[in-house]
Amino acid sequence: MRVRVSWTLIVPVLAVVVLALSWGRHLGPVPVALVGVLLAGAVLAAVQHAEVVAHRVGEPFGSLVLAVAVTIIEVALIVTLSVSGGADSDTLARDTVFAAVMITTNGIVGLALLIGSVRRGLAQFNPEGSGAALATVAALATLSLVLPRFTGNSPAGEFSGPQLAFAAVASLALYVVFVLTQTRRHRDFFLPVEIATTRPADERHAPRPSSRQALASLGQLLLALIGVVGLAKVESPAIEAGVRAVGFPASFVGVVIALLVLAPETLSATRSARRDQIQISLNLGYGSAMASIGLTIPTMALASIWLPNRLVLGLGPTHIVLLALTVVVSVLTVVPGRVTRLSACVHLVLLAAFVFLAIRP
């Protein structure tokens, strides 16, 4: 009997092997390029396995799997780069988290809405669930990234010790309450419109994977994530050198990290949008933004006890304006429960403005 081995198993295993061989070594241009290819393959494999797990456990639990997974990657990268970095590491957590918020709320959401509106004329979703998610993201972003500029503790945007502890506890509490709301009492708010109104929540067009398949995919997902985290760390010197070489600000490293860790979310969200499951795409987008703040900030607050660098969280004036504009536009997008491609394009233009201003502040 022939045993079929999938590329989604081979690539993560190969990524971990290459990680073990390359860790702590100086790599030349060719090995760096090969590591980059494996990194991209590990991201694609992670998406495949996350979707199998998501299909088994059903929505909205499935969206949480990938959101929490990519946040683990993000935290690991921020901590490792903060330990090895210099003065620029003071703002790495802020730059990465804010980039993640802008990429998710404008990039992932905008792309999903564009795909849905082009396919159907209107992209439809549940405003109750998406509105609750957006409100939580706005509160988390304001408490953690805007308030440090206005507390008077530091002009650079640092919280005092008690203020940081409060922001960390509040962020984690909001995230936990949202997850309980999403998965228990008001689960139907976060289901695709057609699933919530016309058929049972767990019903799917394709047969659900068995428990054995789901557990195997979960294990391979964890393996792929280890490969992504490790190889991204191996690639980080090349990323930082590349950012300096092209003349971009050091803060752009945070944007690159956010793009790397959110690649699985983006691919999964676009696939859901192509299947006319816009609500799942929004769950992924807003859920990732929420996890990025609600889990990363408490972790970094705890890690700041041992890290040698300061933890600067306060956004500058330009980024505060972009965040405020994103929240206003997102509210106008979410409230009706259906949008045209115009709303999608507005979000994508906001993302383009963020990237442009990150390159040319």
From TrEMBL:
The chain crosses the membrane at residues 30-49, 61-85, 97-118, 130-151, 163-181, 214-234, 246-263, 284-307, 313-335, 342-359. The keyword Lipoprotein does not apply. One of its GO terms (cellular component) is plasma membrane. InterPro entries: Alkaline_pH_Ca-Antiporter, NaCa_Exmemb. Pfam families: Na_Ca_ex. Keywords: Membrane, Transmembrane, Transmembrane helix. One of its GO terms (molecular function) is sodium:proton antiporter activity. Residues 33-183, 217-359 form the Sodium/calcium exchanger membrane region domain. This is Ionic transporter y4hA. It comes from Actinocatenispora sera. The gene is chaA.
